[in-house]
Amino acid sequence: MSTYKDNNNNSNSNMNTIDQKKFLDECIFVVKEQSFYMKQALENGSLRDTLKYASNMLCELRTSHLSPKYYYELYMLIFNELQHLDNFISDKKKHKKKFIDIYESVQHAGNIIPRLYLLIIVGRNYIKNKDIKAKYILKDMTELCKGVQHPLRGLFLRYFLIQMCKDRIPDTGSEYEEAGGGNIDDAFEFLLTNFYESLKLWSRMNDKVIKVPNMIQDNNTMNSKIKILKEKMDVKMLVGSILVRMSQLEGMTKQYYIEKCLPKILLYLSNINDSLIQQYIFESIVQVFSDECHIYSLEILLNAILKMNTSLDFKSILITLLKRLRSFIEANNKCDLPKDIDIFNLFYDHLVVYVNRTLDTYTKVNYNDSINSCPNESHPGYPDNNSSKGKSKDIINNNDNNDNNNNNDNNNNNDNNNNNDNNNNNDNNNNNDNNNNNNNNNNNYNNNNNNNNYNNNNNNNNNYCYYNNNHNNNQDGYTQYKKNVQNGHIKIENINHTNNDLNNNIINNMGNINNNDLNKNKSGKNCTIVNTEEFVNNVVKMLQVIYEFIFLCIRIYDDDIIISKLFALPYAIVSNVNMNNDTICEQIISIIVLPFNYLGLSALNARNMQTLLNNITEKHKKKLSLDIIDAIIECKQKYITYEDVEKILKYISYIFHEKDKKNKDNEDIFNLENNNSAYTCEKICKFFHIITNTKNLEEKYNICMLFYKYICNSTYLVHLLPTIIFTLLHVVTQITKLGLEDHFNQNDNKINNINTINSNTNIDSNNTIENEKKEDNMNSSNSFNIYSNDNDKKNFNNYLHNNQNNFILNEKKINQYNIYVKNIFKFIHTNLLTVASQMPILTFKLFLYSAIVVNNYNLFVQTHEFLTFDNLEAICYEFITQPLIIYEEDINISAQQFDCIVWIVGILCSHINLLDNENYNNIALKLTQHANKLLKKKDQCIGVLKCSHLYWENKKYRNSTKVIECLQKSIKNAEIAMQSNTDNIILFIYMLDKYLYYYEAQNIEISEETLHYLIDICQDYYNKTNDDTNFKQEYKKLIKYVHDKQKNSNTFHKINIDTSILRS
User: For tag attachment on the chain, is the N or C end more exposed, with fewer CB atoms within 10 Å?
Assistant: First the structure.
């Protein structure tokens, strides 16, 4: 057996990490050695030798040289080895002894640490054997564990007790509850007693603060304290595990938790004068117990947090609690919440107190720091610094008592407060003495006194909400706060107060602080900077609490009144702190953005929201704007009004006018991967689509114009203008469809009236009317060509039925829409000309798409005779000629030129019929000339072939002569192209295809001789080559097509073809 010597005077703090590791290795060696002998004794069935070697192994836990980290490593090694002993004792056949005898024999061990560890192992199995009631053994082991009062060793001992006996507790439904073994009260009492004893042991770890001589630097003292605090928090899991097991009790119902569990825990916690311990326990309570328990005990828990000492970091506790409740609400239906519990008012009333407390401390420290940093400055309401030091010190200490009264009142208040301060100092000294006495009493532990205290605490647990923490009055934040309220320093505002009262009175003692003094604080000493950072962190944490509170309320309530009140708290903070601080400002931004994620633009209607937006500094306005845009994009609620859009654009307009520092000449404005401005613009475009997503055309038009007003001078205009134009063109299209549908409805009503009046006439007349009706509708649909098919019209009719009460447009409304359309066309023309050089291709397409819309709108104008729209044909002509100008001036790449010709040919052939013949022929001629001037002969050939459709597809502008001229020009270009490269033989396939098309369409200018000429060229090449598979496949398709037509009709009966290639 190792000769172990425990020297309590030597602290583990005197040993460095290397020494502790070395000492740990020595302990581990002894543990493994004794464990080996213990296992041999187990195999031999010798209980006496087994207990001896186990006791030797457990003696290593008596050390005071290891930090909690290394002590835990040693503990876990021994714990694993003790499981062999536990298995041996649980098997009565192996040791053949009564548990009562073993239970009494292990208590004769020489050292208390091995004695109690062995006692717990035997007691665990004694309970399992059910020879005695479980509650008696548990109580006995709990009382015996009080013999170890060393904080670290005692905590681990009680942790071992809970670990070993957690499944031996007489819980509800447990096997140990039967036959009077105990009930939920006994199980809870066992856990609660160990919890309280562990709290006392844990709190006494503060007594190990090292006294460093005065000549040593303060940094060494600070480092030592930090190390001790870290070691103290390393053992928090030992205490928290008891709460975890407590929450797992089957008998821990909601009612039991509210009536017994929580009040007792809070009562014992209030007796521990340590804010770190209190904070951890509160956070553990929030995390381990059920959500239902928290909801029904919310008022008790919040009151308890408020009554703890002011050094308690209540913000972290509230954040944990709010997140827990929000997760519960999101996972379950919010309708499951009890109606008799007002979560909003409970949290709001407490948060008002916390905001007052935070801002009061923040302002007082900043003010005192400003005085210290400016010794030659005099401050309003305070005497000059040239006065005696004693007076200056008294005045600074009584900063909270100045309420902007007259000088006489101030003097009286100062005298009274000096007396109060003296009394408070005396109370503090007395309390310190009491605390010292309590510590001494804890070291000399008396079991009888503890039992009496425990019983007294049990008797008072139901009145916890009204208890008064007499032993620590100077640390009771709630009591001190009530004194401040009575003296008029702070006012708690209720939610029924008006907005102005809340904004003006939430912090009464803010009026004495001069902004200049706060600004002077920047030039203070280093200690001033440290204090400022500390209190800024407190303000930021308070804002995080408010953020979680707002988040929770948004998820619970749909009431606009409640939602509008949520921002009074952040407004109070913004009104009293320096918003130039980046951390504070960013936290305020997160609070501002939060409601937009769930309420959309309607979040602007919340009280104080616009004030919060105005308080954001210039430095952070871009972040605010982008975050709001992201939130609105993600929001599922898309209700839009012009007023809301007008408000929000005022606050996000900052990003429209930020300076672009990059070199735009070398930057691709549409490269979203490497261009931040384009990426930002992509978000803005999404935002624009959301704010214009309204069925009210008038509102949609006004929003577009309002949005343009903000970006007209912006660097983002090039990016955003196409989006605006497409939206405006959609407005015109909707007006066109709306007007034409109205025309259809009016015609239907007239016909129905005629059918009703002539219902008694003969059947032939009725049939005539019905036929006229069908013919009119058919002619109208064919000539307007607004709906691509019957389904489109059916869908639009459904839209009319579901979304509008009455679509019969009156003359005034149509005239108003007509004015909008005029403004839209003017807007498009003006703005596209300004950006044509920056994005020629996109401008080219936008002009053409606008021409289609103008052409379709002409049908709307013709339908309503009272409408006047001068020069509509000229507008359409302008929208088509402008792309040709852009083509000539800004588009220089041959491939792009070819694509542009294809686009404009397709649009003119399919969609344009408004132009007169002269204008149309001029455009067609210009296009043909441009096609014939393309860089490559192949492109020239294909381009001119496509231009031939300009003179054929639209019957209004059909000209067979121009078609054949284009085809003949293409043949010449193909022949020239063949001379330079024989691969261009494919061009003859294209021309043959086009000739067959026009020949089948009965173009009189197409002759069989030309067709035979092209067929012969292709046939000769087909017979000569074996490599060009593409050419052969295309030629076979054409021959097969002609051959099939010859079989089924007489269309190509004059065309001679070689059908033998079809069999090859």
Answer: C
